[in-house]
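User: Predict the structure for this protein chain, please.
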Amino acid sequence: MNDNNPLHWSFDYNYGAQNPQFAQELISTLRGYDPEAGARQTGVGRTVRHVYNILPNYWRGYSRGNATEQLSIGTAIIERSKANNNLWHYSVEYENTTSGENLQMQFRCSDEPYRPLRDSWRVDARNSSFDAYSRSTCDGHLTLDREVKLRINGAAVNCGTVETDVKLTCDWALFDVIPALVQTIQTSDDSVEIAVLEDLEQLRLKSRLDFLESIEIPIPLDGYYLYGIGLLPSYWWLDADGNVAIASSTFETLVLKEKMG
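Assistant: Here is the predicted structure, written as structure tokens:
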């Protein structure tokens, strides 16, 4: 692993305001996991677990002026297991320790490369305030007419309709979707179309996945990017074993620090 060369532009947020520096924290996190440990399993009942360090792309938006020993602002944990009905059951926890935000998401996907959403899903959001806005819940489902319907704190919301020939998945399932579609994306003459339900609440139609490039620094990685109408671009970097090692969006970068299964 090379510490001296600059990072790729899609996740290079190594500005002087951070202490420790972004590159230092990213590389030390990548060093903490063994790429060959726990090969990816797809058997029934096996739990696949990936833990990501959340790094802020712009530290001044989070720093309160106090010295800190680490740049991390939280952790994202993605767990999934396949049931006997060939559905993947996902449990995702996202915790931002600087904002006090905690998201817990439960959803199911078909055992297909696109991991299309099935049945119903639920989001439980909490923050560190002590008022009526300290918690919200969101329950959703996809109707037979392909309408995405939510109930947020009891209020019904219709998010839109997904075309019949487009797969609808969740952004947290992309950690499995992109590795499964590597060959499709790289051999396609055009980008791959997909509909994304961000955090199981915001419907992003007309989204697309495409190949970016391969790099050798800080480790060998293959890059992909997601973009679309109303969707800020994000960059997904897979290691040699098909794990999403780095996922970088506008405000934060997730770096793989632990995996099981």
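The mean pLDDT is 89.
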